[in-house]
Design goal:
single chain; alpha+beta; two-stranded antiparallel ribbon; 10 helices; binds adenosine-5'-diphosphate; binds magnesium ion
């Protein structure tokens, strides 16, 4: 009689999606040197697919068989995970698809979610390969956290799902303009910020929001401090580590560089040499042209096509409900953030959690000095409390918001990706997705 085969735990199977052009174009090299050996050691099997164009990953995940995978992991910046989330939401079985564990391995220039994962694990701030290694170890541990998603509806009625941010004004301008410094990696944001500070714009608009209960006062809960991570840690004994296949789908030609957009010059102001120097400058008078500004959870996901119902929102053409607060005036920036980090090392909302169901809404009104804005950004970059003594800054927890730009031209981004410019509104759906956080 033949013996029954021993039942071995099935190795975890991950679908790795890699954007060869993310960040400085080092994703494949970093993956081969830092990620794949660790996964092999942890007994994780995987398929590696290189994206050939924008939206490739999005299309791919709309068609995969969910049962074949234990997780989908992107190797790029935040933009590629945004594609994956929205591809899953396009499926008829979106509710089941969102149970799929999602992971992020930072190989882009904008790696905010990876920064948040690193932070929540209690690790010191990291960038580049160090951040990638930390995240790879955490991913191998395999622990999951529910992840809030924010449903964003734009003027045309299109809806997308966001895990990070909606930005207008200074932040979205830096994000999009700095695309042309992509070869610099994360430094692109520093340069983009300096350029934008030299030619600060203000935008007229209306911001309305449904307040969320204020968090209890006091400092944010302290993170456990772990010095570093070096090994995948306690894992079941690995079965023979045999990656299934590495499908190299080839490279596509370098994307067309965007035509540089001209920035209105401010000849009377010297360009800010560096942010530190600027931040040290004494308070400046507001520059000309700046007028002072004037002032529930979703139903359980069903299988209705197109994602959960936005029960807190009324159509964009109708006035917001009476329980909402509306501010109108000139803004330097409006930022809705639902993660701790705005960049890998920009700790913008230290109280944020992956699944607290809160949008951290932040706005800076016209009249802020360049020095004050530079100080604010530097404090974020140091992980220090920021924004004290800046009267133009407002921060409110919200469940939903509506943003109506009144300035005819500008840039709006969702998770760092440009979306159509015009009125938009959004509401948070608590813990709708699942993130591999270690
Ligand atoms: P980064 O942080 O470097 O911007 P992202 O992950 O945000 O990295 O990716 C930037 C953009 O590249 C996203 O809009 C994504 O859709 C797009 N993209 C993904 N794969 C490719 C590819 N193979 N070629 C060109 N663009 C791509
Ligand atoms: Mg990006």
């Amino acid at each position: 009689d033949a013996e029954a085969p021993a039942v071995l735990p099935r190795p975890r199977r991950l679908l790795l999606l890699l954007n060869p052009f993310g960040g400085r174009g080092r994703a494949l090299q970093w993956c081969q040197s830092h990620v794949l050996p660790m996964m092999a050691e942890a007994g994780i099997s995987f398929n590696l697919v290189q994206t050939e164009r924008a939206n490739h990953a999005r299309e791919l995940v709309t068609g995969i068989s969910l049962a074949e995978w234990d997780g989908i992991v992107t190797l790029s910046g935040d933009g590629l995970l945004f594609e994956v989330v929205n591809g899953l939401m396009e499926r008829r079985d979106w509710a089941a698809a969102l149970r799929m564990p999602l992971g992020i391995l930072p190989c882009g220039s904008g790696n905010a979610l990876a920064g948040a994962v690193n932070f929540h694990a209690g690790l010191p701030p990291a960038l580049g390969v160090e951040l990638l290694q930390n995240c790879a170890v955490l991913l191998c541990h395999g622990a999951l956290s529910p992840l809030d998603l924010v449903s964003v509806t734009t003027a045309s009625g299109a809806r997308c799902f966001s895990f990070l941010s909606v930005a207008w004004g200074f932040v979205s301008d830096v994000d999009i303009e700095s695309e042309k410094y992509r070869h610099m990696g994360a430094a692109r944001f520093t340069l983009g910020t300096a350029v934008r500070l030299a030619a600060l714009h203000t935008y007229r608009g209306r911001l309305s929001y449904l307040p969320a209960p204020e968090p209890p006062p006091g400092p944010p809960p302290r993170r456990p401090v772990a010095r570093s991570v070096t090994a995948p840690g306690p894992l079941p004994p690995p079965p023979a580590p045999l990656p299934r296949a590495v499908s190299d789908l080839g490279l596509c030609p370098e994307p067309e560089p965007e035509a540089p957009r001209s920035l209105p010059g401010t000849p009377e102001e010297p360009p800010p040499g560096d942010l530190e120097a600027l931040a040290e400058a004494p308070g400046e008078a507001p520059w000309p042209g700046d007028a002072a500004g004037t002032p529930g959870d979703a139903p359980p996901p069903g299988d209705a096509p197109g994602g959960p119902v936005d029960d807190l929102l009324v159509p964009l053409g109708q006035p917001v409900p009476p329980s909402w607060v509306t501010l109108e005036g000139d803004f330097v920036l409006v930022l809705a953030l639902y993660q701790t980090h705005l960049g890998a090392e920009l700790l913008a909302a230290p109280r944020a959690r992956f699944d607290e169901g809160v949008i951290h809404l932040c706005y800076v009104r016209a009249g802020v000095s360049r020095a004050a804005l530079a100080r604010l950004l530097l404090a974020m970059a140091r992980g220090a409390p920021w924004g004290r003594g800046c009267p133009q800054l407002g921060r409110v927890p919200a469940r939903a918001f509506r943003l109506e730009p009144l300035t005819p031209r500008g840039v709006l981004t969702v998770d760092g990706e440009r979306v159509e410019y015009g009125p938009l509104q959004a509401q948070i759906h608590r813990g709708l997705a699942r993130l591999l956080t270690g």
